[in-house]
Amino acid sequence: MASSIRVRATSTGDTTEVQALIQHPMDSGFVKDAKGEIIPPHFIQELTFEYDGKAVFVADWGGGISKDPYVKFAFKGGNKGDEIKIGWVDNKGTSDATTTKIQ
Amino acid sequence: MRTRPAIRFAPLALALAALVLAALVLAAPTARAADTPDPVADAKAFQKFYTQKFPKVKFEDFVNGPYSMNEDMHRQWEEKEQFPPYEFALEAGKEMFSKPFKNGKTYADCFPNGGIGIRQNYPYFDEKEGKVVTLELALNRCREANGEAPVSYVKDEMASLTAYMAFTSRGKPMDIKIPNDPRALQAYENGKRYFYTRRGQLNFSCATCHVQSPGERIRAEILAPALGILNAMPIYRSEWSGMGTTSRRFTTCNSQIRGVPLNPQDDEYRDLEYYLSYVSNGLPISGPGARP
Known about the structure:
The complex is a heterodimer of chains A (103) and B (292).
Chain A: E1 5-11, E2 15-22, E3 44-51, E4 54-60, E5 70-76, E6 83-90, E7 95-101
Antiparallel strand pairs in A: 1-2, 2-5, 3-4, 3-6, 6-7
Chain B: H1 3-35, H2 39-53, H3 71-82, H4 87-98, E1 124-126, E2 131-133, H5 135-145, H6 156-167, H7 182-196, H8 206-210, E3 217-218, E4 221-222, E5 235-237, E6 242-244, H9 246-256, H10 267-279, E7 289-291
């Protein structure tokens, strides 16, 4: 299966800008379906971006985040060609991870 | 004494009446001419209306809907296009398109040129059937012809498939033809009538929003111009947090004006799609699109 994560990191000299799009239903657990039954909660709880073995961005998420979330941030450092690791874990214990090279 | 002037003017009045009559007789043929549908003139007038209303917007930019309407929105669009939210659907569509059916055939077998780069020719008028055939309809017919169950017209699989087919046709100018067939012209006319007819509790027509007020706000949304609106289909709408097809756009438009939507791919919607695509002839295909 194709990865649930799309990510792009671009170096602008001093900083690296990272954009990511994650495919996930992000069900809050408060929404009912067409039959009136509650859709059980299913959301990403932790999202981590690692560079050079260190976490540069960690997000503790809950049901308030929208479906197919988009993240954009920048951090100091990062060289072209270096790898960034991205991973998420959701409340059902499912996880996905991928890596990308800084452009 | 008082009657005298009246008598004096009587010949003049007669002459006037004759003139009016003559004018009426002369006007009659032109009035009839305006009643016969003239799609070429329609499309020209339709496009001229928008280019005059928005002289700063480049012609090919009209396909970007609300994002073409002002600079701020345009910047947002550029940023969004760097990382478009329809990417997942596009990938899913590509996969579905190449995956064979149970009988070994694929979607490519149902379409000219293997289904690649043909979005600009849809909808077309099928002279055998005597009706308009849209891309969505053709896709479901392809499924049924190959023993597969049809999919929902409004989202998911249908949106992914049309997203992929539109993507392979990006930049090609919309090229809808009206064959020399009175039924085709009738379908065009029906579509046009549907577009301009007011309906629903709010008494809105399609044109109320998309001709009269593009660029204006309706609550938090900026209305898109009708010109080129279908070139960007299917769209990822943040409001829907998902993809939607042309059918979805038509049905939600109708329910938003508090009307009762028709069923997707009913004759009226097919004719409407025919009309709207025809008047956008020449504008590039930009689908799949992203909208707020």
